[in-house]
Amino acid sequence: MSSYIIESNKKKSRLPARLDFAQSATGLLLGLFMWVHMMLVGSIILGKEMFYNVAKTMELAFLSPDGQGYPILVFFAAATISTLFITHALLGVRKFPISWKQHRIFRDQMQMMKHEDTNLWYVQVITGFIMFFAGSVHLYTMMSNPAGIGPYMSADRIVSGGMWPLYLVLLICVELHAIIGLYRLCLKWGWFTGKNPAQARKKLKAWKKRLSVFFLSIGILALLVFIVIGIKHRDNVGEKYVKKSQAAEQVEAAAGSAEETQ
User: Fold this and answer.
1) What is the pLDDT of residue 250?
2) Cα separation, 225 vs 173, whole angstroms
């Protein structure tokens, strides 16, 4: 009987480790995705034409007969990220303080210890909590309107749709949560630590700060560009962006039609 209990306890003891690994794996995937996502969104900084081309490339427009791509791919991508997002949130919430008393105890210990990495974990808790709500809104928007990605339609959603405050908060929370999470993963699993962990920690902290500034700068600048576009496009909300080459073809077609009529 006692041997059965010992064996049973051994099996149960593996579950927290497996959940921890799953949390790390989903966090890694989401963190890397957010970096790629930010670079793609940041293409708006280089112009509306660049952002349009990037968006259509992601929709595999080069494979569609009409060149408009397959917006359904955006739905599936958002659904996949939503699944990872919810899974990661559920795995992470088990470590959150679940009562005000636990929260106060943790805060008191933070103030007493003044340990930087512990403070970073607390930042992750706060940003993760905010992201659960703000990120869900964004992902739902992408799944409900997968064809709404483009220089004008995205800008209209941000300005005329009044979504810019949510996106600003989400941008800051996502970038902080992701970079801190990836930093902590490197320390936790011994990535890039080498033979001198203390020196490696300093280097990782330096890279964390640089990458935070880099991605936050791209994100905020991209948001400002979208806001400027959205303000200028207020009188034509809902209009889709047309590539310069396509616009020229439409003008030529219209001119040809007018000549035939005459």
Assistant:
1) 52
2) 20
